[in-house]
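Q: I have two molecules that I believe assemble together. Could you output structure tokens for the complex as a whole instead of separate predictions?
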Amino acid sequence: NAGVMQNPRHLVRRRGQEARLRCSPMKGHSHVYWYRQLPEEGLKFMVYLQKENIIDESGMPKERFSAEFPKEGPSILRIQQVVRGDSAAYFCASSPGDGGLDEQFFGPGTRLTVL
Amino acid sequence: QKEVEQNSGPLSVPEGAIASLNCTYSDRGSQSFFWYRQYSGKSPELIMFIYSNGDKEDGRFTAQLNKASQYVSLLIRDSQPSDSATYLCAPGSGGYQKVTFGIGTKLQVIP
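A: Yes, here they are, computed for all two components at once.
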């Protein structure tokens, strides 16, 4: 059973470009979470999505950042007009969403570097 | 007050000793508590969860929860160098158990 998959694993962008990060949840999981981790800092919640719905985006910057989880395909975190401060590791997690404990399982992350 | 407080460490223990990792949280509505382990450069890995007051044991790991004191801890018995990592405390609360991560405690097990 494949775990949470993220791609690309490493992404380099120049300032002003767009970054698009993908996340495929574990099989059978319908909930997806995105987190950002800056060097030597903790995990910061960004957004929580279910299929075709954004449930909680309270941790998402108001500008330049957006997320979606379409009916078909992976969840996408999009960062427009990237700046150097966006350089970080972005982790996706998924959970079953079956009303149980709903523990989150993490993907390997995407390391974004903005030049 | 931070939502989740952990001593960032590093906490150094000799091989074979007990490592004690502590965490306090501010949201009294927290219902479930997760401990994640994160090796340097890797993603967090779930190692324990607890939702009832008291102790929960799983192999060399014991999670302890005291909701009245808003305190949760993780004990690692017979610490091994492979346990060297950052341990993240993550209380869950809210309708969908939104998880808030602490900054983590860096554990170093000295051979």
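A: One point stands out. Chain A touches chain B at residues 31, 33, 35, 41-45, 48, 55-56, 91, 101-109 (CB under 8 Å).
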